# Entry
Amino acid sequence: MDLFSFIECAKRTQSIKALFDLLVSCASEEGFSEVAYGALTCAEPPRLPEYLPPAVTVNFPSDWCHRYFERNYHVIDPVVRRTPMISGPFLWDELAKQYQLQSGEQRVLDEAREAGLKCAMSVPLFGPSGQISVASFASPVDDADPQYRISHLYVLAWHFHLAFSEIARPSASSCIRKVPLSDREKDCLRWAAEGKSSWAIGMILKISEHTVNFHFKNAMRKLGTTSRTQAIVKAVRLNLIEFSAAPGLPT
# Structure
């Protein structure tokens, strides 16, 4: 399943399990079949029709999940601890290079790799009121290339995150839908989704690069996002702009 198919199917589902299955299917096409998603902070409990066990949004090896929760590894997991400090997607192997990890943090990463979570990466997902979630992808094989796939998995994670939020908190997402984007803001987002820079968009629309950036800032503010990629993903998810092909989204 490609990204376009994921977006179309995600728009039609109202089941979090079905949505997560879509995420796993799409990530598997990229070579990363081990997937986990969860909230690190939450302003209010999700409005779900029934209790949602963690297994619905985690398909990591069962033995590893059992050990992780039994030993309370979330307390020392460097992915959990460091995600709030990182603005963009990151490789687990790079954490030790960027931070002086404690022995317990390094042990979690080493045991995760031994359990089959190899070549892993995570995507921080920031929401309003300081809400932070994270999506993680890992491969069961050693020769996967997360650096090559990182941009696709980043966009995929954001699409899933927004779709999940709409199902879990429908009242919050309905408020977002009422915020209109101007035609110019939509034009800028559409061209950015095609991989165009601010300068190139300015040439196409016959406006200055400064004006293009002004429209981007307004669109990001209205959509409650902190980057162009997030703004594009949310605009597509809310049917404010059309997704016609697999875009080269900027970071």
About this structure: The CA atoms of residues 193 and 249 lie 5 Å apart. The radius of gyration is 19 Å. The beta strands are 34-39, 90-91, 118-126, 132-139. Confidence is low (pLDDT under 50) at residues 43-53, 171-176, 245-251.
